User: What shape does this take?
Amino acid sequence: MTASFEESGQGAGPPRSAFFPTRRLGSVGPGMSGAALLVTFGACLPIGFILWVAIQTGWPTVSALVFRPRVGELLVNTLLLVAFTLPLCIFFAVALAWLTERSDLPAARLWSWLIVAPLAIPAFVHSYAWVSFIPSLNGLFAAVLVSTLAYVPFLYLPIAATLRRLDPALEEAAASLGHAPARVFLKVVVPQLRLAICGGGLLVALHLLAEFGLYVMVRFDTFTTAIVAQFQSAYNGPAANMLAGVLALCCFSFLGLEILVRGQERYARVGSGAARALPAAPLRRWTAPTLAALAGWVALAVGVPVVTLSGWLVHGGASVWSATEMTPALFETLLFASLGGALATLAAIPIAWLSIRAPGRIQRLVEGLNYVVGSLPGVVVALALVTITVRIAMPLYQTVATVLLAYVLLFLPRAIVSLRASLAQAPVELEQAAASLGRSPTNALWTVTVRLAAPGAAAGMALVALGIVNELTATQMLAPNGAQTLATAFWAHASELDYAAAAPYAVLMIILSLPLTVLLYAQARRSPGH
Amino acid sequence: MKLFLRWIGAAAGLLAATTLATAQDSTGILVYNAQHVSLTQEWAAQFTKETGVKVTLRNGGDTELGNQIVQEGANSPADVFLTENSPAIALVDSAGQLAPLDQQTLALVPESYRPSSGRWIGIAARSTVFAYNKASLKTEDLPKSLLDLADPKWKGRWAASPTGADFQAIVSALLELKGEDVTSKWLKAMKENVKPFQGNNAAMKGVNTGQVDGAVIYHYYYFGDQAKTGENSQNVGMHYFKNRDPGAFVSVSGGGVIASSKKKDQAQAFVKWIVGKGGQTILRTGNSFEYAVGKDEASNPKLPALVDLQAPTVEPAKLNSKKVTELMIGAGLL
Assistant: This one.
């Protein structure tokens, strides 16, 4: 124990040992490593199972199911969707972020709230609003339109945060060398946004791959909708599993692509003093047209859902608010969300703790694996869990435990990221002091470090819980008999075209999602050092 | 290590607590329901009121739930299976997972609406129809047969919901009546011609708004919408193919008791109740607009008489959902 105090107390750099350097961490280390490996093993189950099904199915069947025109069609559809939506999202996000952060736009804070607001509306509610607004809306155009409106905030938040923190000295240097403002923006500002664009872009791309409800509503087939269709006609047959395999590969290639594009450049600033506050670019005679364009954007992204939802609420009147149907759905949603949030945070503790206290190559691999699994669409994870439970773990079949496991797998990265940031701020010395005063290492960890990390844990829990509130596909496939959440109830009504009866569920989901939006907004606006 | 154990303990405790907290009510029967949720809810509520037996529903599609029961095998938690179409329940039957129904139950439904095995029974029926947009199609332009829709002149003009069990049941009737070659060719032509929608309701709405000229769906969507606001069917006309055409196929919804059920008496009672006076009355008076199949039970008076639809004779037990899925995957529709 004493040896470990001396070493880790120095705050030395990353250890050299490749494996978890847990010897230095006292008796807590092996337990944490064990727990981390257990969680990671659980997280890898879905991928493992897809492989296992593929091997069992045999190559001839696999190739017949994968290399067929329909899969090609789906691949083209999915890639076209990403190819159109992603650049549009990046363009709008950069433009909107520049306007709210770098120009003298009137009421910029209000506009930035309105730009983030669509986050509180589940994607499938966006498309429900659009198809009831324009019933004939369908196909690629509709898919791109609705996805762009729904997902721009994912890119806007990190880009706005980065723009706000840029050092104006760089731009001034470029300008003093004779570059025109537009060129300065392209050559100096945009490259500095690369990390934000890559990160947000990856998030959008993964959502495009995973979303189900949005594309069913506008009749656009992607891998995810095709897998659900296969599931609905053959349960967990090999055809659905093979499509899931291809979809998982798509996700992995986006992850790899992001790492390639992200590059290794340095973005940090060194030098004496701090960066100045940024000067606001004057819009002058462009102010009025800009305001009009922004109003147009907000009308499409927030106005259409709000107006159509209100329309359906008025149309449905009091009769659609059936307490007997809605109370259990609300109760089950809250139950799933709170338990799933708690479990995901619990599962995140060992991984987050190791990444702060014992970083190393294996640790990075373990952590990375969890992110990879978190990038998988709900339909893939659910399909794997259905197969596992029905074939070899029957007692867990159709139980709450399985649904919660799916949520943990899907949302674990959210919990890890939040918790890790908080743990990093909890000094190891306090834990050691507690131990030296006679607490057992475990006790010291729980009473000191875990307590200090509570704000991060709570934020992570909230993020997971709100992800669960809006989750549709996995919940639909795994829910216990008779269980219904707000999302599945909404979907059941909306797919019978009973739009009025679906509206109250959408409203409840939005109300539950508002805190998430506020939280994300506040997090992104936090300046460094505060 | 102690920490690891404590961590595991916490995780397991949380899981156990939730499982207990939400453990499914073990009284009453569990029905795997592929029928319209609102219809089965009405049946279940009335049955519970009369007998005191609680009914829990697991809702899903025909083939989804059928395949699910087969996968679950002897461990299936289901007590009763209700379908919209025959192929899914025939699938469960051929896996040996249905218990024989009581003679009294079988006696309530004419032989044409149940298989000779006596292991499942027709609970309702629905007719195939070509729903068309009255503004864009004149009566003389209507297809004479379902097979006509393979003609290139119908390219991009008709809709269906190929991923749904309803349409797949229609294809299974085509397969049974005309054989594999004709069906496979027709499906390939369909892939060229059809505009796929998710769900028959959405397909009818597409007809109504003029996105397509017509759609191959079942009859009750129209009557259901007319009984409500009519906003999704005001421009829609109903064309029955008749003439024993594959497109005049009448699909039999099935009900059966799962062989592994531990509550067979209650399950048998529920199936008997559905095909008896109670269940069939709900078909006649409710908003499902499906045909009643019980002996001497009339259907909703708003519907055209079932005998006038000149449906082809198809033995419901022979409909092959697996082959249909295969052919549709082959044609690129799934």
Observations:
- Chain A touches chain B through 61 residues (CB under 8 Å).
- Residues 202 and 255 of chain A are 7 Å apart (CA to CA).
- DSSP finds 24 helices and no strands in chain A.
- Confidence is low (pLDDT under 50) at residues 1-18 of chain A.
